[in-house]
């Protein structure tokens, strides 16, 4: 592939540090979501973009992927690269549609996966269920024991192991987990067991406990390995089938698949660490946000992705999304591999409003989901939801109601708000709908604030990045609640995850545990750990046959005061910190986070982390909105006006996003509509457009 | 001005948010693993007039659901009576006296007024479980203490922070009386910082909505919470509901203690009468009144989780003061077992009384013990002393919607148990098993969950083992025809000989050496409904998964 280093945009000095190289060729990012499969096609030479949105085909996601290519009239044979985000593994885990998987583990410990860490699903209420990821009859024990210091206490009983493996094969297991106590300290038993398993096991679906994460905590490490094994055959089959289908169409390059850490990895090897693809969809949206924010000169973002049933929030500092190694994707389902730290905070467009027993209006947690969905979907929904409130108040275009098959009218919605909410509250239907939005916005703002604070930051130091179908409808109001000064609305909020696929980097994250008092650490050893992590990452990127523009390496440590259990992550400027550097950086970070100084207590160095990132060449986001469609004046981009309820009914101009002139200055109240998304500028808000076609909203004073 | 319902809801979630932020800040900065990992702490907002609860963090330990309002109320009363120095801005009180509205000595409370224009608008208060507050045994759970002095240092309300500064003299007294004192400064600063976080957030809210509006909203929310609780209680047919729950022993006198409960429902109020319960006991299984009340509240919250926690929610609940019983302990009765164990038996009595009246909302009895096993010893190579705590879960009771979960946490807690790998890293021990306790779930149409079965060996040196558990004599009760869960079992193997402690679930300072072992089997949950009506496929499934043997299943559930 040729590089086009002489890109005129670079010469113009735009974001010069990142743009020595610009991506050339044709690329497709295809993201499979719960409802829609989205495609972004980018042609660097023509500076052309094609978009498609087709229904997701749940039974076999590859059908939807091919349909998306067709919908955008993209010839697979002519593509230089396809990057794919899939929910195959996410759905398999959440719906427990898993492959039959067997476990061999240390004698006395087969129930660890079922016992968990002794909790309950909800703080209040003594009910609820938990289903272990591998059933008890497929969890077998083998004598052999390592101690915490890595020494062998009892040798591995190889005869017992062979018998156990044969038993699992007989029971029809397709995948295998080998998970022994303290394998992070000494993996010899797991390695030997794999050797033996390779003789017996009918396929290559073998996961060792220490392979994905080499950290202590047998439940978390075991669940991670079990998730990996039980989705591995599914993912392998899926990507092979998709690759075949694409190859039938003449695509002969590498297919890349998104990982939950926001990086991508070749389809040839993705199934080895299949657990890393769980939650990759939300991660790719955050990567697109980081990319867009960096180009826009707004590198510190809180992402706000509001969909039909829930809202995802993540934090981006300096264009780097926060990554966590300790994500729990549902009750007692920890997956401890590095993932973009995306938190689901509840309310979505389908959240139901009701008056509770105390006579108070509450929004959520119940949701109308997508079936029957909100009343305005016309699919039989009868409970008033956030989406219905938006429709009733004119924030969504009421004309879109007519397209629904059920033929629901605005009157149906008005009636529901009047009787179910307005009556008990003593309010008219529109006032009740406005109240629903006010409460929903306040709650979502609180949820965003909690995410921000739990990551140690004040939300007011960030801009809100609004995407997802409903994000831009609420973002300005929520930003005002939070005291967030600006909202960044990307050119194509509805296909952000697919955009993430084409802007994402190659990425490999490494964690090594030291866990010693800082003053007892051998700093040469620490430096050697960093060096090894970098070497491993470079080798991994070298194996992936993808063009990169720049290599980026970051280092951090996790530390705590001795006696504490929570860790604080401290970013490092380089891979050779002195002991004094670590002490000072940690103390500084601790004070920033807790406003407390503890000179009385010594710190400990717990983890040493490196990320090796292969930055992809730059993509010109300005192409996302076809420049030729833009009108010369704002007036010409206006499609009309309609009555929208803010504090009262207000005649509000409505614009078509693709028609906005590049130098458009907007002032709220205003509505900006586009293919799959509506932005509401509240009274007092103003917005300008940047070169990439982002709208940057300055949130006005509280009305 | 009358408040619109929308502002009311927004202020409601705003107050909740203040508390949740305090909870979060406290655990993240705390040193004590009991606070940081197990979330054994709670934060709340309390009225300036009488200390009644305005809002409490949703991530607080359930046992504190009502307790801090008594602590704050007592403090306010003592200030009014001149028994405690009145506060000035910047002052924070510390108190852990169980008899002044507390639990046990390890739960240390901080309280700070929020000042507006020179007046106290409300109080912020939090409580955190310190790993040690002195006394006979490390950690404070002395199973054979006979007076509170043996349990640790008792602090009346004193101003630990004055004008924003830690008082070094009081702090020095505390540090001289507790173990591992050098790390406590981290917890003290974290606990105070959580109050400051709350103050800052609440101040922003008051500035935005106005003091009067917020005050009016608090009053209105209180009466609406009461209304909401009354609406829930209306589901309970009027009548008297009785139950009994037992504690194995008080740890000193080997006889069971009895909790007798009669709940009277009149359609909108519930009255709880513990008359006839056992008299105060010699050992540490006494409960102070605040803990008794709190246990009733937390049980009701488990039953009606949608009612927000505030003083209003408690209004329709009347608890008659159980004078003369072990549920209303007075100085100097020892009380270390009240928060962890007695509270759970009280909750169990509430569940048992109401399960027939509220069949869809209440489960059969859960294991209901914190399963406290403490091992104190010395690492021979370094001479360093250690205290290891193993807390453990047990089976939950079956309920109308399904079987109880296995290895659930204590009724009054939400904390995680430590991983075996971490225990073996930190202490010279080896776990031989950490397994599902087969056969332990009480039979029922919906069976109880299964307990835990673990065995620990001392690898090096000497150590002393103490236990504070329960349900060793009687298993968690089954209901509506369901069978009881298996009883708690402790088995010590010392010098090749095995024995069970005299008090079954409680013992102190059993000395052990390398090679000795302790095996603990925790209770299963009670069964719900007639076992003979259990879905045959589920019975077969349990046998297939080895949860019951075929013979056990036959005996418990009848032939297929």
Description:
The complex is a heterodimer of chains A (703) and B (560). Chain A has 703 residues and is of the alpha/beta class. Among the domains of chain A are: 8-93 and 237-280, ATPase, nucleotide binding domain (Nucleotidyltransferase, domain 5), CATH 3.30.420.40; 100-204, no CATH class; 351-439, no CATH class; 507-615, Dna Ligase, domain 1 (2-Layer Sandwich). In chain A, the strands form 8 sheets. Chain A has a 10-stranded mixed β-sheet, with helices on both faces. In chain A, strand 29 and strand 30 form a beta hairpin. The longest helix of chain A is centred in the first third of the chain and has 31 residues, at 218-248. Mean pLDDT of chain A is 89; it is low at 1-20. Chain B is an alpha+beta fold. Helices cover 29% and strands 22% of the residues of chain B. In chain B, strand 17 (489-494) and strand 18 (497-499) form a beta hairpin. In chain B, helix 1 runs antiparallel to helix 5, helix 3 runs antiparallel to helix 7 (289-303) and helix 5 (184-209) packs across helix 6. In chain B, 61% of the residues are buried. The chains are: A alpha/beta (703), B alpha+beta (560). The interface between A and B is large, with 68 and 85 residues. Chain B: Residues 4-531 form the Hydantoinase B/oxoprolinase domain. Chain B: Pfam families: Hydantoinase_B. Chain B: GO terms for molecular function: 5-oxoprolinase (ATP-hydrolyzing) activity. Chain B: One of its GO terms (cellular component) is cytosol.
């Amino acid at each position: 592939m040729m590089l086009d280093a002489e890109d005129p945009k670079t010469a113009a000095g735009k974001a010069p540090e990142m743009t020595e190289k610009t991506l050339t060729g044709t690329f497709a990012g295809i993201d499979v979501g719960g409802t829609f499969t989205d495609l972004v096609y980018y042609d660097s030479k023509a500076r052309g973009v094609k978009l498609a949105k087709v229904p997701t085909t749940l039974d076999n996601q590859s059908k939807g992927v091919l349909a998306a290519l067709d919908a955008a009239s993209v010839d697979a044979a002519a593509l230089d690269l396809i990057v794919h985000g899939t929910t195959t593994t996410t759905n398999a885990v959440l719906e427990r549609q898993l492959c039959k998987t067997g476990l061999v583990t240390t004698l006395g410990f087969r129930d660890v996966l079922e016992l968990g860490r002794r909790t309950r699903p909800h703080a209040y209420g003594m009910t609820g269920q938990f289903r272990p990821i591998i059933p008890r009859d497929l969890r077998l024990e083998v004598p052999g024991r390592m101690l915490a210091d890595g020494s062998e206490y009892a040798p591995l009983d190889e005869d017992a192991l062979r018998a156990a493996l044969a038993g699992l094969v007989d029971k029809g297991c397709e995948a295998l987990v080998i998970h022994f106590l303290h394998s992070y300290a000494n993996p010899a038993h797991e390695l030997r067991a794999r050797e033996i398993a390779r003789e017996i096991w009918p396929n290559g679906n073998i996961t060792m406990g220490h392979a994905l994460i080499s950290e202590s905590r047998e439940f978390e490490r075991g669940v991670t390995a079990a998730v990996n094994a039980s989705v591995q055959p599914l993912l392998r089959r899926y990507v092979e089938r998709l690759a075949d289908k694409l190859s039938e169409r003449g695509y002969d390059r590498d297919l890349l698949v998104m990982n939950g850490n926001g990086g991508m990895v070749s389809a040839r090897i993705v199934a080895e660490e299949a657990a890393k693809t769980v939650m990759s969809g939300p991660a790719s949206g955050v990567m697109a946000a980081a990319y867009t924010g960096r180009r826009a000169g707004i590198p510190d973002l809180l992402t706000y992705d509001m969909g039909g049933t829930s809202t995802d929030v993540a934090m981006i500092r300096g264009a780097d999304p926060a990554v966590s190694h300790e994500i729990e994707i549902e009750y007692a389902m920890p997956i401890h591999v590095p993932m973009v730290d995306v938190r689901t905070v509840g309310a979505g467009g389908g959240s139901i409003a009701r008056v509770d027993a105390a006579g108070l209006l509450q929004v959520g947690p119940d949701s109308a989901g997508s079936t029957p969905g909100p009343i305005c979907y016309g699919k039989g929904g009868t409970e008033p939801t956030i989406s219905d409130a938006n429709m009733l108040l004119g924030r969504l275009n009421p004309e879109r109601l007519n397209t629904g098959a059920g033929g629901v009218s605005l009157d149906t919605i008005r009636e529901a708000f009047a009787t179910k909410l307005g009556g008990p509250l003593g309010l008219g239907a529109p006032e009740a709908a406005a109240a629903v939005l006010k409460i929903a916005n306040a709650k979502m703002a609180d949820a965003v604030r909690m995410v921000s604070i739990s990551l140690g930051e004040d939300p007011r130091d960030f801009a809100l990045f609004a995407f997802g179908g409903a994000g831009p409808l609420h973002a300005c109001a929520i930003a005002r609640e939070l005291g967030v000064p600006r909202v960044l609305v990307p050119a194509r909020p509805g296909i952000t995850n697919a955009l993430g696929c084409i802007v994402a980097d190659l990425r490999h994250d490494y964690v090594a545990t030291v866990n010693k008092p800082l003053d007892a650490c051998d700093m040469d050893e620490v430096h050697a750990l960093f060096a090894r992590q970098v070497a491993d990452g470079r080798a991994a990127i070298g194996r992936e046959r993808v063009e990169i523009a720049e290599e980026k390496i970051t280092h951090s440590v996790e530390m705590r005061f001795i006696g504490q259990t929570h860790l604080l992550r401290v970013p490092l400027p380089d891979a050779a910190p002195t002991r004094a550097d670590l002490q000072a950086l940690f103390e500084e970070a601790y004070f920033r986070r807790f406003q407390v100084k503890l000179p009385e207590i010594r710190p400990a160095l717990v983890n040493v982390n490196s990320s090796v990132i292969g930055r992809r060449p730059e993509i010109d986001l300005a192409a996302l909105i076809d420049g030729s469609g833009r009108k010369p004046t704002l007036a010409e981009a206006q499609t009309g006006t309609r009555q929208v309820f803010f504090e009262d009914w207000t005649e509000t101009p409505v614009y078509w996003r693709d028609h906005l002139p590049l130098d458009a200055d907007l002032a709220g109240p205003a509505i900006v509509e586009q293919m799959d998304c509506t932005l509401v500028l509240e009274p007092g808000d103003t917005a300008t457009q940047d070169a990439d076609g982002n709208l940057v909203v300055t949130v006005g004073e509280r009305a | 001005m009358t408040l619109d319902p929308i502002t009311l809801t927004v202020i409601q979630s705003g107050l909740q948010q203040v508390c949740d932020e305090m909870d979060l800040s406290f655990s993240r900065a705390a040193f004590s693993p009991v606070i940081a990992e197990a979330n054994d702490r709670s934060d709340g907002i309390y009225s300036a007039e009488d200390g009644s609860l305005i809002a409490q963090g949703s991530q607080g330990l359930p046992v504190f659901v009502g307790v801090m309002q008594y602590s704050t109320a007592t403090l306010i009363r003592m200030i009014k009576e001149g028994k405690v120095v009145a506060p000035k801005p910047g002052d924070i009180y510390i108190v852990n006296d169980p008899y002044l509205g507390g639990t046990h000595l390890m739960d240390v409370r901080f309280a700070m007024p929020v000042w507006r224009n020179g007046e106290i608008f409300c109080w912020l208060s939090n409580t955190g479980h310190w790993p040690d507050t002195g006394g006979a045994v490390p950690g404070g759970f002395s199973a054979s203490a006979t007076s509170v002095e043996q349990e640790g240092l008792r602090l009346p309300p004193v101003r630990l922070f004055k004008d924003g500064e830690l008082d070094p003299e009081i702090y020095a007294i505390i540090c001289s009386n507790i173990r591992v004192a050098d790390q406590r400064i981290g917890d003290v600063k974290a606990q105070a910082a959580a109050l400051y976080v709350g103050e800052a957030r609440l101040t922003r809210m008051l500035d935005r909505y106005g003091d009067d509006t917020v005050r009016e909203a608090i009053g209105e929310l209180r009466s609406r919470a009461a209304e909401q609780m009354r609406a829930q209680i209306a589901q309970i047919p009027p009548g008297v509901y009785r139950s009994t729950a037992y504690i194995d022993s008080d740890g000193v006198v080997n006889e069971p203690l009895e909790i007798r409960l009669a709940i009277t429902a009149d359609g909108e109020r519930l009255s709880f009468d513990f008359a006839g319960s056992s008299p105060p006991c010699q050992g540490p299984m006494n409960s102070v009144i605040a803990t008794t009340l709190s246990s009733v509240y937390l049980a009701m919250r488990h039953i009606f989780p949608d009612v927000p926690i505030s003083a209003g929610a408690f209004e329709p609940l009347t608890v008659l003061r159980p004078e003369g019983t072990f549920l209303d302990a007075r100085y100097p009765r020892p009380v270390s077992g009240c928060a962890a164990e007695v509270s759970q038996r009280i909750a169990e009595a509430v569940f048992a009384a109401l399960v027939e009246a509220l069949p869809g909302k209440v489960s059969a009895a859960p294991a209901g013990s914190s399963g406290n096993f403490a091992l104190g010893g010395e690492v021979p190579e370094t001479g360093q002393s250690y205290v290891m705590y193993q807390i453990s879960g047990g089976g939950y009771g079956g309920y109308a919607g399904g079987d109880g979960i296995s290895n659930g946490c204590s009724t009054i807690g939400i904390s995680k148990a430590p991983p075996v790998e971490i225990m073996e890293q930190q202490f010279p021990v080896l776990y031989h098993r950490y397994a599902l306790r087969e056969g332990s779930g009480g039979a029922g149409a919906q069976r109880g969950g299964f307990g835990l079965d673990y065995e620990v060996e001392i690898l090096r040196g000497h150590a002393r083992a103490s236990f504070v558990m329960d349900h060793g004599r009687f298993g968690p009760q089954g209901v509506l025809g369901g069978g009881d869960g298996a009883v708690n079992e402790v088995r010590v193997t010392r010098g090749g000989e095995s024995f069970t402690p005299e008090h079954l679930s409680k013992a102190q300072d059993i000395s052990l050496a390398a090679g000795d072992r302790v095996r603990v089997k925790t209770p299963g949950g009670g069964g719900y409904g007639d076992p003979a009506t259990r879905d045959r496929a589920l019975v077969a499934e349990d046998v297939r998964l080895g949860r019951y043997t075929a013979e056990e299943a036959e005996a418990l559930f009848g032939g297929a």
